[in-house]
Amino acid sequence: MIRVTVPAHLRAMAGVNGEITLQVDGAVTQGSVLDALEARYPVLRGTIRDHGTKARRPFVRYFACGMDLSQEPADAPLPAAVADGAEPFRVIGALAGG
What residues form DSSP beta bridges with 64? Predict the structure, then answer.
């Protein structure tokens, strides 16, 4: 099982509390994890990634194992610790300002 954390407002939209666990068949990549998340919680479609292009939305970042994976290709394998459930895949809302 893959562990996923999302910001509080997205948890509220999806009606979940705390961490989300997902079954991902095949390679564990950003794309496959987010596909499984959106399939299980359709209300999240378009909130993390663009509907059409599936590109990461502005001000959303992806982290795992202490690394920022936001600029990695969607089909790049996630770290083994995420694939085996030891570490979560984190979706985080970024802040901006001046």
Answer: 67
How big is the CA angle at 45 (ends 92 and 96), to the nearest 5 degrees? 30
DSSP β-ladder status, 60-64 and 20-22? unpaired
What domains are there in the chain, each with its CATH number?
2-93 (3.10.20.30)
What are residue 37's phi and psi, to 5 degrees?
-65, -45
Q: What is the mean pLDDT of residues 69-78?
A: 96
pLDDT one-digit tens code per residue, 3-38? 999 999 999 999 999 999 999 999 999 999 999 999
Which pLDDT score is estimated for 88? 98
Strand residues in 1-98 grouped as ranges (E): 2-5, 20-22, 60-64, 67-68, 89-93
Can you tell me whether residue 16 is helix, strand or coil? Answer: coil
Tokens of 40: 């299980």
